[in-house]
TrEMBL record:
InterPro entries found in the cross-reference section: Peptidase_S8/S53_dom (IPR000209), Peptidase_S8/S53_dom_sf (IPR036852), S53_propep (IPR015366), Sedolisin_dom (IPR030400), Tripeptidyl-peptidase_I (IPR050819)
Cofactor: Ca(2+)
Keyword annotations of the record: Calcium, Glycoprotein, Hydrolase, Metal-binding, Protease, Secreted, Serine protease, Signal, Virulence, Zymogen
Organism: Agrocybe pediades
Residues involved in Ca(2+) binding: D596, I597, G615, D617
Classification via Pfam families: Peptidase_S8 (PF00082), Pro-kuma_activ (PF09286)
Catalysis: reaction(s): Release of an N-terminal tripeptide from a polypeptide
EC annotation from Swiss-Prot or TrEMBL: 3.4.14.10
Protein name (database record): tripeptidyl-peptidase II
GO biological process terms, semicolon-separated: proteolysis
Active site: E304, D308, S553
GO cellular component: extracellular region
PROSITE patterns (UniProt xref): SEDOLISIN
UniProt function note: Secreted tripeptidyl-peptidase which degrades proteins at acidic pHs and is involved in virulence.
Length: 638
């Protein structure tokens, strides 16, 4: 039902009695990041002017210019406020838009013919909502809406750009639905199996090519260069620890429907490795009508979730792993949907999400989930692992920043979010590169960073490998078997202060041999990944048999498991979870706690890509974690 409370009384009467807003000309506020035809959508016809649109005006939040400062106060090990995480209520109070912004936008909308009784302000004051006809919206935003069609995904509507009065621009971040014509997250950052010569980058509907080899279950520490198992990872990263505070700790793994794990696959894996876990299952949280199908379907639909859970559950046993299964089978979901579920302050009326980016719930499509959008239904876990990605060019800066801010807020509340960095080196999903206009192009030569891994407030995880013929006791190299560790520099996000020293050192000491036309070489761009772990030759039980799997999809849950165990040790001595760990990773005091990776590269876009070298590099970040060394250090922190 529509909420009965519209605007706070003080704001409502301020709008009623305010002098008419100063009229000013409209100026461009936002334009589409990528043309729909590049994503398989084609303009069909003008949207009927009578079509009702659920409009959401994202108000400019206060103190966003201080987000990094406030985040570092509770995340930098050298800060006197370290680990003093915020409560959800404190987050709302800190970042809620000002009354001035609410009044200005409300007054303008009323002056534009949208009566005040149609306007609704959400609980965190971040969004103003109202329903309006396409004709009304086109007049207000000086734009035109069209219907776009896709051969397999039906129809969507949107506009190419929109404008706002000059005096309103500073009060609005973005407006939905408008220009955000983007795909859902791609399946597992190109999760791959060895499949001969033709390796495909899967989408959320497709998957990698069919495997041609079943893995014999005879792996030992002597052949970890060919078969990675939990035993190999424990030896590689000195993971010698049994959880003591599993009930107090929390670890989440995100999955997007239609991907799902198969219980019998977990048992097959656990029977051959940690046999005491046979019968163990994740705690499943179903977000926005999500479903978990229990029978084998295909590697494309079962491979990612089986991989994530088999290794997350094995490495952290007896820690309960929470599966954040997101989206129904009809509509699917985007990154905002799982964020809605773990942070009620991020939710908006009717979900408030982007219809071309996120699942819209209740789902009006036949067979879709008709329940309420999942808003704040579960507390954010201390650690979250996400093995999905999309290309950065598919989002507008306004959309990217709005979502990135949320990751920063989660960090302030004590949650660490690990995102896999991609499997195509400096190229994007499917090996796609960009042209000079930063649009996808066949034969493109411009590097294509991923999102949200490029957001500085997530911890980006790249991939390494045990080089052929080497052992767990030898230095690893950057992953160059089947996949290449995603890495590079953002075209949207500036360099955060916590990585400034090491990234600038890299650019000065090891200048990449590429022009500014190929990547953002401004020296002021967010570099990624932050950290890495093995991503080659993983033995995974999928659909009743064992496969060898490759990808940063494997690296992310491994790193997330390690930091979950570090949190466990802290909780056991009555200390808080680590929260946002990037300042710790980049701290001069912790650099010897990581295994530096100095060989290999991440080719793509017709180039060798970047090269792993001493210190940070845009292939493997700061290197791989040494659990024992990190454990000793984090126990000394507040």
């Amino acid at each position: 039902m529509r909420p009965t409370i519209l605007l706070p009384a003080s704001i409502f009467w301020a709008c009623v009695y305010a002098a008419p807003s100063t009229q000013s000309h409209h100026v461009l506020h936002e334009k589409r990041a990528v043309e729909p035809h590049a994503l398989g959508w084609f303009q069909d016809r003008r949207l009927d002017a009578r079509q009702l649109l659920p409009m959401r005006f994202g108000l400019r939040q206060q103190n966003m210019h201080r987000l990094e400062e406030l985040l570092l106060e509770v995340s930098d090990p050298l800060s006197p406020k370290y680990n003093q995480h915020y409560t959800p209520a404190q987050i709302i109070d800190t970042f809620a838009p000002s009354d001035e912004s609410i009044i200005a936008v409300t007054q303008w909308l009323v002056d534009s013919g949208i009566s005040s009784d149609r306007l609704h302000l959400d609980g965190n004051k971040g969004w103003i909502h109202f329903d309006a006809t396409a004709g009304e919206v086109e007049d207000i935003l000086k734009t035109e809406y069209y219907i776009y069609v896709h051969s397999s995904r039906g129809e969507q509507y949107g506009c190419h750009n929109y404008s706002l009065p000059a005096h309103i621009r500073d009060h609005v971040d973005l407006i939905k639905p408008t220009v955000h014509f983007n795909p859902h997250p791609s399946l597992p950052t190109s999760l791959q199996r060895r499949a001969g010569k033709n390796l495909g980058a899967p989408s959320i509907h497709g998957g990698p090519k069919k495997a041609t080899d079943n893995v014999p279950i005879t792996p030992t520490l002597s052949n970890c260069d060919q078969f990675i198992t939990p035993q190999c990872l424990r030896s590689l990263y000195s993971i010698y620890y049994k959880p003591l505070s599993a009930k107090e700790n929390s670890f989440g793994v995100v999955a997007f429907t239609p991907q799902s794990y198969v219980p019998s696959d977990l048992d097959l894996f656990f029977k051959n490795f940690p046999s005491s876990q046979v019968g163990a299952r994740p705690k499943t949280v179903l977000i926005d009508g999500a479903v978990v199908k229990s029978s084998p379907q295909s590697f494309a639909l079962n491979g990612e979730s089986d991989l994530d859970l088999e290794y997350a559950m094995s490495l952290t046993y007896p820690q309960t792993v929470t599966l954040l299964q997101t989206g129904d089978e009809v509509e699917g979901a985007g990154f905002d949907n799982w964020l809605d579920a773990v942070d009620g302050s991020f939710c908006k009326y009717k979900g408030g999400d982007d219809p071309s980016q996120d699942g819209m719930y209740p789902d009006t499509l036949p067979g879709g989930y008709k329940g309420k959008a999942s808003c704040g239904i579960v507390a954010p876990p201390h650690v979250v692992s996400v093995s999905y990605i999309q290309d950065e060019y598919t989002v507008t800066p306004a959309f990217a920043n709005r979502q990135c801010y949320e990751y920063g807020k989660l960090g302030m509340m004590g949650t660490t979010v690990f995102h896999s960095s991609g499997d195509n080196g400096v190229a994007g999903n499917g090996g796609v590169c960009l042209n000079s206009k930063h649009q996808p192009a066949s034969g493109g030569t411009v590097f294509n960073p991923g999102f949200p891994v490029s957001c500085p407030y997530v911890t980006a995880v790249g991939a390494t490998q045990i080089n052929p013929g080497k052992t767990v006791n030898d230095p690893e190299g950057a992953c160059e078997q089947v996949i290449y560790s995603g890495g590079g520099f953002s075209n949207i996000f500036p360099m955060p202060s916590f990585q400034e020293s090491v990234v600038k050192t890299f650019l000065k000491s090891h200048p990449p041999p590429y022009t500014k036309g190929q990547f953002n070489n401004s020296g002021n761009a967010r570099g990624f990944p932050d950290i890495s772990a093995n991503g080659a030759n993983f033995v995974v039980a999928v659909d009743g048999k064992f496969e060898r799997v490759y990808g940063t999809s494997a690296s992310a849950p491994v790193v997330a498991s390690i930091f979950t165990l570090l949190n466990d040790a802290r909780l056991a001595v009555k200390k808080g979870p680590l929260g946002f760990v990037n300042p710790l990773i980049y701290s001069p005091m912790t650099r010897l706690l990581f295994n530096d990776i100095t060989s290999g590269g991440n080719q793509g876009c017709g180039t060798p890509g970047f090269t792993a070298t001493t210190g940070w590099d845009p292939v493997t970040g700061m290197g791989t974690p040494n659990f024992v060394k990190l454990l000793a250090y984090v126990l000394t922190l507040a």
